[in-house]
Amino acid sequence: MTSEFYRNIVIATDGSENSDRAISYGIEIAKMSGATVHALYVVDTSSFSSIPMDAGWEAMYEILKNEGNKAISYVKETGEATGVEVKEILGEGHPSNEIIDFAENNNVDLIVMGTHGKSGIDRFLLGSVAEKVVRNSKIPVMIVRS
Fold first, then answer.
1. Sign of CA dihedral 109, 68, 115, 123
2. SS3 for 98?
3. 113: part of which helix (H) or strand (E)?
4. What is the DSSP string of 22-80?
5. Is the separation of the CB atoms in 112 and 29 below 8 Å?
6. Separation CA 96–CA 99 (nearest Å)
7. Is 81 left (phi over 0), alpha (psi -120 to 50) or beta?
8. Which of 16, 35, 99, 100 shows a CA-CA span of 20 to 30 A to 128?
């Protein structure tokens, strides 16, 4: 069965166990609708913008890239096991901005992502990528609590 409703789905992952449930939901929706999944991991370089480029920064960047590659590979393996086509995307920048930009520029119909489920004062003090995406995206967003 294919659907015209969901043709392209972004599953934004941070590689944590908390995102596993969101990955499962996103893959299942893609399977039911015949959609292509875009597994997206964003290397958060926004926090390093004020640090001079040196060997230490380069090493940290490589570690983050490797984590990202593992995270999107996991989504790809999970999708392929159920017959869902998954494209891997490794971005860099501020995660919420990059997720929204990718979705808006690639005909994405749905963004699926997890949350740590913070509430109350933690939510106000820490902010979250998921909350920023929900507040600023023109594309529908599905938030899956861990």
1. negative
2. helix
3. strand 110-115
4. HHHHHHHHHHHHTPEEEEEEEEE-GGGTTSPP-HHHHHHHHHHHHHHHHHHHHHHHHHH
5. yes
6. 5
7. alpha
8. 35
Residue 115 has pLDDT above 80, yes or no: yes
Give residue-wise pLDDT tens across range 122-139: 544 445 899 999 999 999
Contact 40, 99 (CB under 8 A): yes
Q: C-alpha dihedral over 105, 28, 42, 8, to 10 degrees?
A: -10
* pLDDT tens per residue, range 8-61: 999 999 998 889 999 999 999 999 999 999 999 999 887 666 666 666 777 888
CB 105 within 8 A of CB 137: no
